[in-house]
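ok so heres the complex, two chains, lmk if somethin looks off
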Amino acid sequence: MKARNAYIQGAGRLEFKTLSPSGLGRQVLIPFYLESQADNFQSLTTSGLQNTSLTSPNILITPTGNGATNTALLRTPQISWSVLRMVGFVTNLYTPPIPSAATLDVCFSDLKVGGSTSLFVHEDFGSGTMYQTDNSNPGLRDYPLVVSPNRVEVSVQGMGLATSTPVQFSCAILCDILQDDEYGVHIPGPYARRGAIQKR
Amino acid sequence: MSDKKKKLLALRSKIKRKMQSGKGSRNEMAKLQTTLQRVDSELSRLKSLHTISAKHRRGTEEVNQHKNVDLNTIGGLQFQASSPPGIGRMVSLPFYPTSVNTDVTTSSGVNSISRTNPVCIFSVGNSINNSVNPITLTTPQISWAKLRVVGFETDIRTNSAQNTSPPTLIVSDLKIGGGTNLFTHEDYSDGMFYSNKNDYYAGLRDYPLLISPNQAQVTVGAISPTATGDTVTFSVQLVCEVLDDENYGTHIPGPYARGASMVRSGGKLK
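and the predicted structre for the whole thing:
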């Protein structure tokens, strides 16, 4: 084996890999915010609990009965400074480490850009645990462009008992920046290049 | 003799017979020649595979046999080992608390800046229920190297009652010197999206150079479902590539930060 050859991985084809950043403008996150007031939902902000917030994406669900809570509509802000391609949806759920009552789950449905069809394959609600940041990202039905004034929206509801502990969560879309007014035009990741998103 | 080897030997005889007969166009002959070379190559590979297996069984395998490099593991199973990223790549540069308030404890104490220790503790509900007043963290001036910023990471550890939803860190406005925000969110985002426990790196709008006297800064706060009593122990850091180091020389950046993958056109910063 020519050990000086930088392109040889290892004897017996053992491959070495390291987790790396994804590259300029790839897999950036844009959080959803609670813009419209909804019962059972409150924003956790730097000024404390608020009914809505355009600046803080963390939301608290407080159940008031058994079963599903009310449904809230979350939206991303208008991103006027760039053209984005949406390539995923991720969540952070802060369930109690050792709950003393039934754990409240956070469920999502109807992820869409502007007035489009749902990007989830589930027509109704699905558990937010499927989309958690420490899971592999499940796919979406399409990788649409997000161009201002269009925004992305998703419906959310809690599912628990009246006695369940309130649960904090946040969610965001995963995007590749195609064009940025400040930083120019980027090359998207291979999953979002023309050849990989062909459709008939 | 394996079935595969028998089939390959039969195919080789057939090709040779056809070539010796001389029937067929020049193109057909060229194709037969190419196929014959492939068959020979595969037979040779099978032979070396058998040899290596026998040596392996006897424990006399030579590690530096160059043919080993071309061998796939039997069954096509591939092995990968996690590795260090290489010299000067993905180095972590911590932020230090340079603008503080009474809701934060640093290595110098409550409401005191620290330029030597990046770990801070937020006390939720100290002045605002469910929250803290945000603080600004800054990286030191790195005069001895030219760096390229390629990521941002948070390390968050919380203390709350075990049966309550825990608190978390929120982050906003990451910038180098007077540059534009490198986060895509104009306001706060959940710090967990940038956690060093995630199996991916959250992206940034740009991979700018960090050259002294420029410093990076970020604003952080904390929120909690519980009004008072929770704490968040945290540190945040930049992930950088060392491009030029006064002591250790010039390095090759990772593929994500090389010229070919940093191509961009238009924008204010060409």
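quick notes: The domain at 91-261 of chain B is CATH 2.60.120 (Jelly Rolls). thats all i got rn
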